[in-house]
Amino acid sequence: MVDTAPALKVAIDGPAGAGKSTVAKLAAKRLGYLYLDTGAMYRAATVLALRKGLSMEEPDEIAEAVAQAKIDLVPAMNADGSPLLKVFLDDEDITYEIRSREVSLMVSPLSTIGPVRDSLVAQQRRLSQNGGVVLDGRDIGTVVLPNAEVKVFLTASAAERAKRRMREFEARGESVAYDTVLQEMLERDKRDSTREIAPLKKAVDAHEVVTDGMSIAEVVDKILELCANAKVHERSRRELI
Ligand code: DC
Predict the structure, then answer these.
(1) Is pTM, for the whole model, over 0.85?
(2) Domain ranges of the chain
(3) For 9-219, CATH number?
């Protein structure tokens, strides 16, 4: 049967540790959509800057390096069948490296560089132009895809988010004290929310989902329900044209 359902653009924004990438990846799989983790793109740009020995004092050089680089996101699968997004920098797999603490500390300042954002946003829009995409980040509903049919602002209490981040570091064998993780996360949130260009902000038409006490499956179901409603709405809108 030919699927005539409209291919939606789904924007998922929110602060660090809200669980965006976990649920966005699963929602994309269930919808049969392409998943783009835009934070991973900023992280790949950070790996590039670190490897080139560039500091935040050299924003033009960082922007130039990012404009020249090839950053690819490739859907793959974990051994347990769960979806995984591989990140490549100039064809080298850097999926593991982008989650290091060193990268986590530099990515937020780096993402304030306007020309770096311009390069990455252009790539995000190009990959989204035909719909059938789920993007997660900070500025998807406000800047990258302001016309997305589904916008979700995913959040959770700072304590819950810090706990999740700490478990991620532990799984990598990087042991960091809870207070340090919480402190660094709050600093990152503050910088991401107060920066001049494309700050983290709930779009006026976004649905806020607070995930404290919700299971991953419940959050994914909530997003799919919003998508199902948007498809009905989009179908009737098209019939009226
Ligand atoms: O989602 P994450 O923690 O992997 O994102 C890493 C950083 O990238 C985050 O501190 C802010 C930045 N970012 C951004 O500025 N815009 C996006 N669309 C996604 C991430």
Answers:
(1) yes
(2) 9-219
(3) 3.40.50.300
